[in-house]
Design brief:
eleven-stranded mixed beta sheet; 2 domains; Amidase signature (AS) enzymes; four-stranded antiparallel beta sheet; 23 strands; 29% helix; single chain; alpha+beta; 17 helices; Immunoglobulin-like; globular
Length: 624
């Protein structure tokens, strides 16, 4: 079977690393491995950090640089292998730093790193190396994490489809034709595809939650001030937060425990001097789903994609079945409160210029240089030119800040009135669009403009294999409780599924394509059929040609699925490969999960309609 797991190596493989000979790759499989599982393998000696890193690098080569070409990684940290070797040595000496010790993490390329460039996805900053790390990068390093690579983003984090002038377009690993969300789509795609154990993103208005939703991940937009944004390239310092994306609630909790707390260089974190830092991992099991009161935000649900709305309602039905109270929530003032509470337009030009003056001493000194030199992707051109042309209006800015406070008070009053633990709605109301299109449906502002925390949590998938998610908005500093609610759902429903196009490697390489060639003969009909299934693109390539002895007119060549044990020729057509008046037909078909599984189970048949054959056609299994 194509999906079997094969040990990555047999015997010893000698790897050269900074003049040191290393042991063979271990048989520990990193695909979908949790932080806890990885740490257990490290502690038991089943693998080491160098071997882990090699596996992730192999996966990046197989799936980001080739194969499905996710294009999620901008740069690999050239010092990562040395860092891994040093952390292995610390482990051997009994000097463990915690649950992240020796584990590879990817970081969105708007986090300052002194050991590699920080670009914001822009050619304008392609070689810019800051003089100081972002605070969260320092915390990861102190915790023993390995910074494996920097990930692509929507340029300057100013959009939600993850395309940049330096990194290009990142693809969604669940459907390579679609966007991964943004602006942290590079991190999300890399984590979903197990190119790293977990990753860091940032969220100004949906940039953690939307990629989490589109990549079957957990992503928490934290309460403003819970963790520092120092050294993260700003879009809007008032709205910006930074934090992790992960494949599970526990992985997210481990990272949040390492990243939360006060930083004197970020005034927004001042409340953390008085508040206890949440114990995210410790509180994961603290929520009884039956004790919750959840508010269904009707205005956001009723305008959402029908598939998404149905899945969220089903999730709320599950909570209700556990004993939770679910109420329909009316918030008639929401539109008015949101309309004047955004501050990105007020802050971006000033913030990016201040950042550039603080960290960059090159020929790119400010936003004017970036725009005037044309050093940006067209996807952000309009936003950058508007920011360049804008004139700061202190009165309008102050009004927006006041509107944010009014929005927050209104949300908190609504939650208090109904004694709600969380308000429920979709992170984004529409499914991911095809690459090249603009993405509608963003519900980001409710959390971003109020400073309140919101969790994007995975629910399941559409029949076509696209992830679905819902968002939980809670009171200020209820972050750990929100994650505990998501954890309770996760433990009961197991909503995580890996992308099909990025399976475990076989002997360090992506699985080979399945090739089927056969001749179809029935009556006077003769056809040559060639099929090639590439798992790493999810495409079935086909070529159908009439044979030299064909004496019949071919009307159609279709594919059908044998749904039951007994095959019936009237099963529905999946795709028509060849129509009338054609001597040959070739092309590619993007496979749905159901069709793909049927193909792997050898339940897909080619059915031919031609003169001389009885009216319902004649079928032959395409994988005899």
């Amino acid at each position: 079977m194509l999906l079997r797991r094969i040990p990555l190596s047999f015997g010893l493989i000698l790897l050269l690393l900074s003049g040191r000979a290393l042991l063979a790759q271990s048989d520990f499989e990193v695909t979908e491995a949790s932080l806890v599982e990885i740490q257990a393998a490290l502690e038991s000696g089943h693998t080491n950090s160098v071997q882990l890193l090699r596996q992730y690098l192999d996966r990046i080569e197989a799936y980001d640089r080739s194969g499905p070409r996710l294009n999620s990684i901008i740069r690999i940290n050239e010092a990562a292998l040395d860092d891994a070797a040093r952390l292995d040595a610390e482990r051997q000496a009994g000097q463990l730093r915690g649950p992240l010790h020796g584990i590879p993490i990817v970081v969105k390329d708007n986090y300052n790193t002194v050991f590699m460039p920080t670009t914001g996805g822009s050619v304008a900053l392609a070689d810019f190396v800051p003089t100081r790390n972002a605070h969260q990068v320092d915390l990861l390093i102190e915790a023993g994490a390995i910074i494996l690579a920097k990930t692509n983003l929507h340029e300057y984090a100013y959009g939600i489809t993850t395309v940049s002038s330096l990194g290009g377009q990142t693809r969604n690993p669940y459907d390579l034709r679609r966007v991964p969300g943004g602006s942290s789509g590079g991190t999300a795609a890399a984590v979903a595809a197990s190119l790293a154990a977990a990753g860091l993103g940032s969220d100004t208005c949906g940039s953690i939650r939307i990629p989490a939703a589109y990549n079957n991940l957990f992503g928490l937009r934290i309460s403003k001030g819970l963790s520092s944004i120092y050294g993260v390239m700003p879009l809007s310092h008032t709205q910006d937060v930074a934090g992790p994306l992960a494949r599970s609630s526990e992985d997210l909790a481990i990272l949040l425990d390492a990243l939360s707390g006060y930083d004197a260089r970020d005034s927004a974190t001042e409340p953390m001097q008085e508040l206890d830092v949440p114990a995210f991992r410790e509180q994961l099991g603290s929520v009884d789903p039956g004790s919750l009161r959840l508010g269904r935000l009707g205005s956001y649900l009723e305008t959402a994609n029908g598939l998404l709305r149905s899945e969220i309602d089903a999730a709320l039905d599950w909570f209700a079945a556990q004993g939770a109270e679910v109420i329909d929530l009316e918030f008639p003032e929401l539109g008015r409160l949101l309309s004047g509470s955004g501050v990105i337009g007020h802050e971006f030009a000033t913030d990016i210029n201040q950042y550039l003056s603080l960290f960059v001493s090159d020929e790119v000194a400010n936003l004017n240089d970036i725009v005037d030199l044309g050093l940006y992707h067209e996807a952000v051109g309009g936003a950058l030119r508007r920011s360049q042309a804008s004139v700061f209006n202190p009165g309008a800015y102050e009004a927006a800040l006041q509107a944010r406070q009014e929005l927050r008070r209104a949300i908190e009053a609504l939650m208090s009135e109904h004694q709600l633990d969380a308000i429920v709605y979709p992170p984004i109301a529409e499914l991911p669009v095809m690459i090249g299109n603009s993405q509608p449906g963003n519900n980001c502002a409710l959390s971003a403009n109020s400073g309140l925390p919101a969790l994007s949590m995975p629910l399941g998938f559409t029949e076509s294999g696209l992830p679905l998610a819902m968002e939980l908005l809670g009171p200020f500093m209820s972050d750990a409780k929100l994650l505990a609610i998501g954890h309770a759902w996760e433990q009961a429903q197991s909503p995580r599924q890996r992308p099909f196009v990025t399976p475990p490697l076989e002997a360090g390489r992506a699985p080979q394509a399945i090739v089927t060639e056969f001749e179809f003969r029935a009556g006077q009909v003769q056809l040559q059929a060639d099929f090639r299934f590439e798992q790493n693109s999810n495409l079935l390539h086909y070529s159908i040609a009439e044979g030299a002895q064909n004496a019949a007119q071919v009307h159609a060549v279709t594919l059908v699925i044998d749904e039951e044990a007994g095959f019936e020729l009237n099963d529905p057509v999946i795709v028509n490969l060849m129509g009338p008046q054609q001597d040959a037909s070739s092309g590619s078909y993007f496979m749905s999960p159901a069709f793909r599984q049927a193909f792997l189970d050898r339940r897909v048949y080619m059915k031919v309609f031609a003169s001389g054959l009885f009216s319902r056609g004649v079928a032959q299994n395409i994988r005899p």
